[in-house]
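User: Can you predict the 3D structure for this chain?
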Amino acid sequence: MSSKETHEQRRERLRQTELRNNPGGSIQGSGLQDLVGGLGWKGTGVLIIVLIIGALIYLTIFN
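Assistant: Here is the predicted structure, written as structure tokens:
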């Protein structure tokens, strides 16, 4: 790991190495950790807020 490599870059590099070594391991698709890891903390917060607002709208309309 180089001194300029961030934790996210290291995690992504290790994930890519694992996918190359075990391509059948990702046959079920990506998981929630891949989504959240790719978004960062701001994107994760926005996603959570959108899900909550969507649930409130759904409950308002269908109740």
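Helices lie at 7-21, 32-62. The radius of gyration is 17 Å.
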